[in-house]
Design goal:
The complex is a heterodimer of chains A (about 260) and B (about 200). Chain A is an alpha/beta fold and about 260 residues long. Chain A contains nine helices and twelve strands. Chain A has a single domain, classed as Aldolase class I (TIM Barrel, Alpha-Beta Barrel). By secondary structure, chain B is an alpha/beta fold.
């Protein structure tokens, strides 16, 4: 039976994993290679590394980080942040990533999804979408808006419509982050996740708001998510993917155990 | 063990090479050196993406070289599209023939309530006596990402259920294939690759 995936996310800045709330009060959370290996050992089904600085100067550091992290990692490994061209993607794959996630650059140039998909396969392209409910719309969920630049700027696209376009262009998965929920630890946006998951036939990874085990149960049930991503709850040993999955199994969610 | 890895320019070989190196194997990558294939100790054909990409194997002469080499009993492992290529073909690219080592063809998962592609960790039901899957316990999980699959037949070494039962692994003598990605399937995947690296050429 197919299982629901628990994905550990590492936000990286200058070759280190960092943790902050809304990009302020950033704390050093450790070495990406060591943390990725630990998460995999502790049962994470997949690792996502996001370069939150994603500057041109930072590319060499990122590639070095990807190379070091991939070396002893034998679960799927996705890298995002600052991938603007198929060449950028090729470098990240060569360094050992299995998937790349694209966000702002794909909104600016949707052809990027086609280009990477054609060269590396749809399974290698994750379209990351930063979404915020539109409180002024008749249907705040169905009319949720896409944001770019770390959630600061409206992209002028509806989330559902952009997710469908990304799928048609050859994205293999959608990584959906709810800006309303992100960092709040109050639970995922299940309505929005379900809305997107029902609109596409590729897997949807829910992100933003993980705080407790019932939040995950909820997003896999009501939210129809295929995978869920969490960063903060795995750092500083707060919880491991394995203990989370054991709790999920008790709640009737199909997960990879033992792991 | 020295592994000849076939590159047919469809996707990325890094993860496969890394896992083989981790297990102590040497690798040689070729995209068309037929002599290297004919002299191979064992062959791995990775593959992601579209079945049509296997056309390159025909155009470079690799198809014939691989056919001749596996006929000598050299161990062969196809991964994902590399496994599908061992069959007659796939409805993903009906005009593009596969190797035809296994009869039957690959087809897309039927549309229904479940999503296609099948992406994620799913469990294996291993048949007895598989050399490739020796030591894999019932219910161990491996990582899949695909929309097309091979049917369950007498040569199926393990089946997996998603929408319907399909061949997760195929094995007859020295010729083997896995639909999942052993290089991305944690300890279970490494165990399977290690089994493959332990095989020796046998005249058949």
């Amino acid at each position: 039976m197919i299982t629901k995936r628990i994905i550990a996310c590492l936000d990286c800045h200058g070759g280190r994993v960092v943790k902050g709330v809304q990009f302020v009060d950033i704390i050093d959370a450790g070495d990406p290679a060591q943390l990725a290996a630990r998460h995999a050992r502790e049962g994470a089904d997949e690792i996502v590394l996001l370069d939150i600085t994603a500057t041109h100067e930072g590319r060499a550091t990122l590639l070095d980080t990807v190379r070091r992290t991939a070396r002893e990692l034998f679960v799927p490994f996705c890298v995002g942040g600052g991938i603007r061209s198929a060449d950028d993607a090729a470098q990240v794959f060569e360094a050992g990533a299995d998937k790349v996630s694209v966000n702002s650059a794909a909104l600016k140039n949707p052809q990027l999804i086609d280009d990477i998909g054609r060269s590396f396969g749809a399974q290698a392209v994750v379209c990351a979408i930063d979404a915020r409910r539109d409180p002024d719309a008749a249907d705040p969920v169905r009319d949720a808006q896409v944001y770019v630049q770390g959630g600061r700027k409206l992209a002028g696209r509806r989330v559902v419509e952009w997710a469908r376009e990304a799928e048609q262009r050859g994205a293999g998965e959608i990584l959906l982050t709810s800006m309303n929920s992100d960092g709040m630890r109050n639970g995922f946006d299940c309505e929005l996740t379900a809305c997107v998951s029902e609109a596409v036939s590729i897997p949807v990874i829910a992100s933003g708001g993980a705080g407790t085990v019932p939040h995950f149960v909820d997003v896999f049930g009501r939210g129809k998510a295929d995978a869920a991503l969490a960063a903060s709850i795995f750092h500083f040993g707060v919880s491991s993917a394995r203990s989370l999955k054991e709790e999920l199994a008790k709640a009737g969610v199909s997960v990879r155990l033992p792991c | 063990m020295r592994v000849t890895v076939i590159d047919y320019k469809a996707g990325n070989l890094t993860s496969v090479l890394k896992s083989l190196h981790h297990l102590g194997a040497e690798t040689i990558v070729t995209d068309g050196d037929l002599a290297l294939v004919e002299a191979a100790e064992c062959i791995v054909l990775p593959g992601v993406g579209h079945f049509q990409a296997t056309e390159r194997l025909d155009n470079t002469g690799l198809t014939g070289a691989i056919r001749a080499t596996i006929a000598k009993g050299v161990p062969f492992l196809g991964i994902c599209v590399g496994m599908q290529w061992l069959y007659n073909g796939s409805s993903e690219a009906p005009e593009q023939p596969g190797l035809g080592h296994f009869t039957d063809s690959c087809a897309r998962f039927p549309e229904g309530s479940d999503k296609v592609p099948h992406v994620g960790w799913n469990s294996l039901e291993v048949r007895p006596n598989s050399r490739l899957l020796a030591g894999v316990e019932p219910g161990e999980y491996v990582y899949f990402t695909h929309s097309y699959k091979a049917p369950v037949t007498a040569d199926t070494a393990a089946n997996t259920f998603y929408i319907e039962s399909f061949a997760a692994a195929v094995e007859r003598d020295n010729v083997m294939g896995v639909q999942f990605h052993p290089e991305k399937s944690g300890a279970t995947g490494l165990k399977i690759l290690k089994n493959f690296l332990g095989l020796k050429q046998e005249r058949i």
